Amino acid sequence: MIIEFGHFALILALLVAAFQTVVPAWGARVRDARLMAVAEPAAVSQFFLLLIAFFALMHAYVTSDFSVANVAINSHSTKPLIYKMSGVWGNHEGSMLLWVLILALFGAAVAVFGNNLPSTLKANVLAVQASIAWAFLLFILLTSDPFVRMIPAPADGQGLNPILQDPALSFHPPFLYTGYVGFSIAFSFAIAALIEGRIDAAWARWVRPWTLAAWMFLTIGIAMGSWWAYYELGWGGWWFWDPVENASFMPWLAGTALLHSALVMEKREALKVWTILLAILTFSLSLMGAFIVRSGVLTSVHSFAVDPERGVFILAIMVLFTGGGLALFALRAKDMRIGGLFAPISREGSLVLNNLLLVTATATVLIGTLYPLILEGVTGDKISVGPPFFNMTFGPLMLPLLLALPFGPLLAWKRGDLLAVGQRLMFAAVAALFVVVVIYAVDHRGPWMAPFGIALGVFVMAGAITEWASRIKLGSASREEVVRRAVNLPRSSYGTLLAHFGVGLMVVGIVGTSAYQSERILVMKPGDTVSIAGYDLVFKGAAPNRGPNYREDIARFDVTRGGAPVTTLEPSKRLYDAPPQPTTEAGIYASWAGDLYVVMGDEQQGDGYAVRAYFNPLVRFIWLGTLIMFFGGGISLSDRRLRIGAPMKSRRAHPIAAE
Amino acid sequence: MRILRIVLIGCALSWATCALAVHPSEILPDANKEERARALSAQLRCLVCQNQSIDDSDAPLARDLRVLVRERISAGDSDTAVMDYVVARYGDFVLLKPPFNVSTLALWLSPLLLLALGIWLARSVGRPKNAAEADTQLTQAERDKLDQLLRKDT
Question: Which residue among A123, A210, A256, A657 is buried most deeply as judged by most CB within 10 Å?
Fold first, then answer.
């Protein structure tokens, strides 16, 4: 009964979305306040209807109602509760429901918090947002209905893929979708602005918090996925340039560019046309990600999700919104006036460089991802585009970006002094060179470029610290003045500083672990010792164990360093009950210097186990860096001046210019 | 991220057991040769997997290829000779780094071309669009005069 109720709510949400698409947009056109006003209650009720549908499905999962086909196929009665709940979005149908729920959540949030938006803009934004929701709701109801019954119900479900029964993974999709879908707001704002033909700095001020929120969630969502892959898949890799990874990475790159160009638009009214285009493209890339993941065009080896009907439907949605958006852009963009003027060497100029490099990088990833598909379609030749290609093309584009990053925030708007900024960055440059010298002096066995890569990360971090020091006049003003400035520095400035610092830290982690990973592969018998990166691991043997829904063999390694005990690692091999599938759980000892990472292999004939031991130097910095980026975004978002609905109010006697 | 693919494409079986792709018994006694074999393996695609190198994959075919690469290296082949040998048998598809030829020209050159296009487009950004706007800029003589006035002021 609850399932039918949820199904009904889903259908009702489709009707509400259709209504919300047509009526407010018409109201905005004929300037009828009553017609426009229906957008808000419609957006809120659409959200609550989808919430009902979502919880109806979750109820079926929690109570293990196997008369629902989706539950029977993807859940199992013995699964721990948390994985029953996360199982809702661990499959195609449920994850689409989560997708539209978040879409509606953003729409409802604009309806509720967007009090300061002009009424026509708000009506148009909510109408565009509803049109996206409508398209996806139709997609769900026609091709991917999660509420279909299975009569007679099976005695038990088929279970969730055990590799997905993991806490980090439970929360990875919601974060990721919030990021993907969050960019829909930027898209809706862009389309609404094009419909009205009026775009100004205020537009960027409204759009930026939403974009920032979406960017934050996408950042943490991607990071969680990468972290999970690192500890769960069992060979210490954290990024694979896989089509599906690229599908999430492209909107992130474009979204990062959008954040920066919207800044120029807000402060200086420049780059308006470009920012609108970027807003359309960012969400289009999100849609394309959905298409790549769900159509199976790029993963044809595996047949589970290869469903032509679904693929074509999502392709149609993508073409409709991307094509429609771009066509509207082509029609209207020429009417938009070019904004503020600036010299090439200026804050604006640095942000143009940022956009140039980020967008070229996005396009490179896009071409690399789709090229094999296109080539095969055109000539029939089959080629592979793998990590070596992306490392060779993407890396060189990031190099100037990172090198220029510390300069940008220190340059003045309109016309900057590169030499003066260079002098202020002396400390950062010296710190970076110092790192190179130290690495070479201490011990260097990796690639010759690696110390420079780490130095680049240090340069970015030290640059962020330099920027902070110069904003609070550290060293040049009195102590009281410095403290006052540090306290009064706007949160958005702290957010930028933190995010940039996080980027530097991430670079250090990426270079460190890529260049200096060490590895031992061998067969070990109980009592054997293996040495890696200064640690000695003694294999104490393996013993069987019984978990809640799996059996496992746990191995024990006593880890010592220079004779002193460090820890005991217990990697295991699991066999899940339903579906019966083996997984490996790595034993990881984390420290600031790096992770000791041990994986168990099969038992060998003639006694002993295959063992793989890694040392991944500085690897934690990758995720620590992204976490800092996430919090930087959050702090920026908490700045009153950025929040929707917050009027400019000078609460302090001497506010510091928010540069 | 991998997750999405696994959730939606259901390829987890190929992943779950990939932890020990390179088996201890495959490893060559000569550390230099083994290092070369590992470097080459990372460039070769596991043909039955999704975008995995044979170095990462546990599939039997990947194992066969790893052994083949090691055999060629042990037989004294250079890195290029080994790659040529593998490509001759499996085609360009096996290379994770696509070769530079007519059909991949667009792939390899596009990042450079796009960057050039971007620079060309960005060149006019922030500049005055027409003569009328440009005229609002100060001439050198006006600027000198302004400097003089400002200096007098302070």
Answer: A123
pLDDT digits (tens, 9 = 90+) for A617-652: 999 999 999 999 999 999 999 886 655 444 444 444
* Residue of chain A whose alpha carbon sits nearest to that of B6: A164
* Contact at CB, A240 and B19, closer than 8 angstroms: no
Contact A539, A528 (CB under 8 A): yes
Q: Model's pTM, two decimal places? A: 0.90
Contact B48 A363 (CB under 8 A): no
Q: Which of A162, A360, A612 sits opposite B111 (nearest CB)?
A: A360
> Where are the strands (E) in chain B, listed by range?
none
Q: Does residue A339 contact residue B127 with C-beta atoms inside 8 Å? A: no
**Residue A341 tokens, joined:** 């003027």
Residues 556 to 595 of A: which have CB under 8 A from any B CB?
Answer: 581-584, 586
* A135 CB-near residues (< 8 Å, 6+ apart): A317, A320, A321
Q: Is the pLDDT score of A123 beyond 70?
A: yes
The two three-digit tokens of residue B120, written as one number: 């060309």
Give the DSSP per-residue string, A218-272: HHHHHHHHHHHHHHHSSS-------HHHHHHHHHHHHHHHHHHHHHHHHHHS-SH
Assign A42 a pLDDT band (cuts: 50, 70, 90).
very high
B122 and A352: CB-CB below 8 Å? Answer: yes
A278-300 pLDDT per residue, tens: 999 999 999 998 888 777 666 54
Residues of chain B with C-beta less than 8 angstroms from the C-beta of A382: 91-93
* Min Cα–Cα distance to chain B from A584, Å: 7
Choose the closest CB to B1 out of A164, A222, A353: A222
CA-based nearest residue to A277, from A258, A264, A259: A258
Q: Is A375 on the interface with B (CB under 8 A)?
A: yes
Q: A522 to chain B: which residues are within 8 Å by CB?
A: 24
Which of the residue ranges A340-354, A369-383, A631-645, B120-134 would you say has the lowest mean pLDDT?
B120-134
A368: left (phi over 0), alpha (psi -120 to 50) or beta: alpha
Q: Fill in the amino acid letter for A432.
A: A
Q: Does B105 touch chain A (CB under 8 A)?
A: no
Q: In sequence order, which residues have a C-beta less than 8 Å from that of residue A446 and are 6 or more positions away?
A: A515, A516
End-to-end CA distance of chain A: 57
Check CB contact under 8 Å for B98 and A389.
Answer: yes
With CB atoms and an 8 Å threshold, state whether B20 touches A349. Answer: no
Whether the bond into A152 is cis, omega within 30 of 0: yes
Nearest chain A residue to B93 by CA distance is A383
Q: Closest partner residue to A386 among B6, B97, B115, by Cβ?
A: B97
- Give me the residue spans of the domains in chain B: 2-99, 103-153
Is the separation of the CB atoms in A629 and A502 below 8 Å? yes
Q: What is the C-alpha to C-alpha distance for residues A440 and A206, in angstroms, rounded to an integer?
A: 49
Cα angle for residues A336, A342, A344 (degrees, 5° grid): 120
Interface predicted TM-score (ipTM): 0.84
> Cα–Cα–Cα angle for A484, A486, A492, nearest 5°?
125
Task: Kindly state the DSSP code that residue A151 receives in the 8-state scheme.
Answer: S
Of B42, B50, B110, the CB nearest to A301: B50
* Nearest alpha-carbon partner for A202 in A212, A193, A214, A213: A193
- Measure CB to CB from residue A301 to each of B20, B25, B48 and give the nearest one: B48
In Å, how far are A178, A237, A239, A582, B65 from B16, measured between CA atoms? 28, 14, 17, 6, 20
Residues recorded for chain A: 659
> B90: distance to nearest CA of chain A, Å?
11
Identify the CATH assignment for B2-99 out of 1.10.8.640, 3.10.110.10, 3.30.70.260, 1.20.1420.20. 1.10.8.640
